[in-house]
Amino acid sequence: MSPVGIGVVGCGVIGTQHVRVASALPGTRPQAVLDLERDRAEAVAAAHEVPTVCADLEEMLVLPEVEAVVMAVPAAFRMPMSRQVLAAGRHLLLEKPVAMNADEVRLLASWRGPNQVVACCAARFRCLGSFAPVHAVLAAGKLGTPQGAVFRALTPAPPRPEVLPPAWRLQSRLNGGGVLMNWGCYDLDYLLGMWPEPLVPRTVRARMWGLGPDYRNFVAPDSDGETHVTAWIECEDGFQISYERGEYHPGPRRAECQVFGDRGSLDLTMVPNRDRADTLWCSDDAAGCKSETVQRHPERAADLHSGVVEDFCRAVRSGCEPAAGLEFSFRVQATLDAMYRSARTGCTVEVESDL
To answer: Engineered SS bond to 205: which of 37, 57, 96, 348, CB 3.0-4.6 Å?
Structure first.
């Protein structure tokens, strides 16, 4: 396919990765960049041979070679610019989370033209090569009737940093929340999208906790986002998800994910880990239970950013649905919203279903 001309809005850490990927993949070309700090945009453009550094979004959107725009700015600032991009007839790839809330996803859907592709980078882990063997096991029905999943990921606090992490990571006014918006969008994208037919969450009950008192000076002032989340998610057909995600955890690292059915279970890792293997366990009428290795993860880490850009550009050229298109991204965001509502009210909450 002919390369898709890409414009990148935001030249921070993630925006720079998008420019790097677009300059390296055969299916894309970085044509323009934009950042509030022009010096930063010019440095990124020079490093990756991007022909145009724009002064504003209007300048980018008049360039005919820019067919699609990557929105790599905090979620709180995306909506007005996203509306401009879609009004100009361009395709749109949004950084994660897809929006601040489900109502904003509805707005994106109302602004999208009939032939425009709108996708979210929350599908990064489903666009890695390590996802294909997992999907193949589930598609082959090796677990029997699917019943549930257990997901737990806890990250210990690092040493006190000399430079504080970006404020948006734990400020609800900038990113809609804390670790749940920052990492939970990846987790739910993976858990809901790993099956041949994506799961449909119906109800959620959740609890959340904020930063511990000893870690206040590890993050930006006024950080109010949650750092630890637990939830019980009930989906259609009775499928259940036990979910836990935490960071700045005062304890050891924990990472486990298991999906199970009435004939087998699959132990896997969403984030490729050279010390881990994905293992399928199946019932056996003689031995009781037997196991086989589905895959061992490679020593060298995969490029986390290229797959989701390739998937987006393939959708632009072919008209197929991207891995995390707007309809699926709405399902993920509506589940996140329900988790926040449940944590605030202490009650079980229904997940909105109508985009």
So the answer is: 348
